[in-house]
Every structure is written in C-alpha cells, then in structure tokens.
Amino acid sequence: MSQFISKTEAAAMTSRYRLYRETILESFYRDQAILPLSETFSNLDVAKLLTQSGVTGLRIYYGMDEDYKVHAILVGVNAEDEDILPANNLTETEEEDMILERATRCPDICPPASDLNS
C-alpha cells in the first residue's frame, strides 16, 4: 500500500495542526515554540541515513530538548522493522552518522510560504 497522500490532504492536515498546535498544550507551555511547524533535513544527510547497510525504511521519533521543544529524530530501520542504531562501542562522532536530529526548525527559521505552511 502506498504511503503517499495528495497535496490537498497534506494541506488540510498541516492547516489543522497550525490551528490547534498551541491549544493542545497546557497554558504554561503555549507561545514558546514547543511544537515545531516544520523541520528541514539536508538531502545529503537523509541519503546518508538511507544508504546505510540494511536500511529498508525510515522511522521518525519525537524527542524533547532541555527547553521542552519537540524535535524529530530520524533513524533507519531494517527489513524486520528494527531500528538501526549505533553499536555501543562507537565514538560519539561515528554515532552521529546514524541518527538525524539537528534539522532547521520552524519556528525560528521557517521556509518560504507554500500550500503546506500558509
């Protein structure tokens, strides 16, 4: 089954998210950019993740930094639907080549207007 959706469906979903993203938060957390509008990852970094040995798909987790801001965390998955994660004996630099997170986050840096974000 295809996982693609139409631009109309995507625009409706992103519009609904923009409309309600602050209201689902407790009032203390509102207007602090806790929930991003979007995150942009480099095609080179995504390609590097997807071309790892054994990768058959991409999984997106959601994590939270020390300021409670939510971030997407991308990892490859194998044919058994298992996360492909760094071995415990790798250096931190080697580990960083297997998990993506440091995207361009909106807000603060937002993309130009499109049907999905305005």
3D architecture notes:
The longest helix has 14 residues, at 7-20. The chain contains three helices and six strands. The model has no long low-confidence stretch (mean pLDDT 91). It has a domain at 33-106. The relative contact order is 0.19. The strands form two sheets. Strands 2, 3, 4 and 5 form a four-stranded antiparallel β-sheet that branches. It is of the alpha+beta class. Strand 2 and strand 3 (70-77) form a beta hairpin. The chain starts with 6 loop residues before the first helix and ends in a 12-residue tail after the last strand.
Count helical runs. 3
Which sequence of SSEs, written as H and E, runs from N to C? HEHEEEHEE
Shape: globular
Main β-sheet description: 4 strands, antiparallel
Helical content band:
10-25%
Give the structural class: alpha+beta
Compact overview of the structure:
The protein has 118 residues and is of the alpha+beta class. It contains 3 helices and 6 strands; from the N terminus they run αβαβββαββ.
What key phrases describe this protein's structure?
four-stranded antiparallel β-sheet; two-stranded antiparallel sheet; 118 residues; 6 strands; alpha+beta
Present the secondary structure layout.
Layout: H1 7-20, E1 38-40, H2 43-50, E2 57-64, E3 70-77, E4 83-84, H3 92-96, E5 99-100, E6 104-106
